[in-house]
Amino acid sequence: MKFLPAIFLLALIVNGCAPKNVPAAPATPTAVEAPKAPDEVKIVTATDLKSSPESIAGEKIYEAKCGRCHGLKKVDDWTAEEWVPIMKSMAPKSRLDSTEKANVTIYVQSHAKGA
Hints:
By secondary structure, the protein is mainly alpha-helical. It is built from five helices and no strands. Helix 3 (53-69) crosses helix 5 and helix 4 packs antiparallel against helix 5 (98-110). The longest helix is centred in the middle third of the chain and has 17 residues, at 53-69. The termini are far apart.
C-alpha cells in the first residue's frame, strides 16, 4: 500500500508528458478555378488506337512474351470482347506488369475482329 501514491504520481507524470492529440483547425477552403471546356473535343477512333504508342509497345510485348510459350495467334481471330477473358487468364501466366497488360490489351483490342 505504501507504493500506491508513488505509482499514482508516476502515472500522472507519464500522462502529462505524453503528446496531446489536439484536432487541427480546419483548413480554410481556397478558391478553385473551374476547369475550362476544351475548344475542340477529339474523338478517338480504332485507327488512332492502332497507331498509338501504347498499341505499338503492346505489339512488341505480345510478340515477345505471348509468342514465347506458344505460337503467335492472329489477333483478328477474336473480337475485342473475346480478348477480355483471354487477357485476364494469360497476363499472369506471362508475368505482365500492369503497364504491359494495358498496352497489350490496347493492341489486341484495337486489332481485333471487327475493330
